[in-house]
Amino acid sequence: MKKTNIQPVLTIALLFLTLLFASVAQAKDYYKWIDERGVTHYGSQPPTAYMDSATKIKVSSSTPSGKAAAQTKIDARKKKLDEKPAVDKTNTMEQQALKEQEETNKKNCEVYRKNLILIGQNHRIREKNAEGEVVMLSEEEKQSRIETANDFITEHCK
User: How far apart are CA 126 and CA 133, in angstroms?
Assistant: First the structure.
């Protein structure tokens, strides 16, 4: 019967196990906690005030499976951005401001039209003044409001 030397096999197995557990021993613990403002934080050491509410997160040290696909998407987006001509940002900001002004005018047109209908339907109109007291509008004030509404509608509404 042939005698086998077990020492090299044992040495390799011991080395393999040492390397396997060394990577686990080096892995840090990571925690997740939510502060008093509702903001979620992640870190290796939560503040002492949040130690009880912090949850331990399992972290894998392997490479993410979607890394290659993500890098491909990033490269494609960079290429697409490089191909686009430069956009004049001042022009787009002006367009954005005009668009916002048009939306505001549209909302104000609706308000002024509703106000005209209400003023026409009601003979007595009440509103609160600066002191919070309810006062009746005089006929001159009603006519002034009608004139203001009509001016805005003719100028800004289509």
Answer: 10
Model confidence at 7: pLDDT above 80: yes
23 — pLDDT class (breaks 50, 70, 90): low
Largest CA distance in the chain: 124
Q: At 119, is the secondary structure helix, strand, or coil?
A: helix
CA–CA distance from 102 to each of 28, 59, 94, 132 (Å)? 55, 51, 12, 33
Quick one: average pLDDT of 19-30?
Answer: 66
The secondary structure element, H or E, covering residue 134 is strand 134-136
Give the span between the Cα atoms of 141 and 145, in whole angstroms: 6
Pairwise CA distance, residues 83 & 63, whole Å = 31
The token pair that represents 11 in the structure block: 């040495």
Structure tokens, 55: 């949850």
